[in-house]
Amino acid sequence: MTLTEEQLPDGLPPGRLVVPSARFTGPGTPEPALWVSDEPLPEAEAGHRWGELLQRHRVTGLWPLLLGALTDPRSGTLRPWHNGELAPVPAAASDEVDLEERCVTEWEDMVEGMGPGEMPYPAWPGMAPAAGPDGDDGDPDERAVALAGSPQAMSALLPGSGHGPYLGLVAAPDGATAVTACGWRPEVGSETIAAMVRSWQQRFGVRLCSLGGVATIAMTVARPPRTPEHALRVAAEHIASCPDLLQIHDDFDTYAAGLVDTPVWTLWWD
Length: 270
Description:
alpha+beta
């Protein structure tokens, strides 16, 4: 889906359509990957603005993102969103990712590298079951809008390190597709992260909110795990997908306990 000026909704702050640099896409004439604001949003305004645009997504076809940017030390430009350090990936690429296989391999490597008892499962336990909806959870989009309007939740949804949050819009049917369509280039691969987000959209009502210049994502969760047992299974997925989480959290059990009833998930890759 091509992004054009005509698609942009009214009322946006000053910004620009960004065409990926040929250095990252190869030969050919790439289309704009996203629209991004020229200046960061005030943090107090960011959640409300993101929520408003999410509510309009079904009409505009544009998925909103809060974006963290870094300064290129050589040129002084903002990267990757403003200077075109982007490489969009076809949405179909995420369909080829076998999440289960990746988790099995990563889990085996972690268990082998740790002492006995440090991991809750000696072998990969399988993907966590879907969370059943509670009566007060509501529609995932509505839940995401409500969370973005909460200062406490919004502090966890901001894109982390770097400058921002900048406002972004990507032509995409959902947050998972926005990951690959916007041209974000995390080392783990945008198609892998997109596959992970899509799976969580289906099982936990996740809605992607932000991407950091460094490989950080944050998302709202309409149906988080409600029991410690379920949280352990979800934590196993998080850690297998993002082993760097164990560098910034005390231990696996503590991380899992923090997922119970938690409406925001943030993952970080070094």
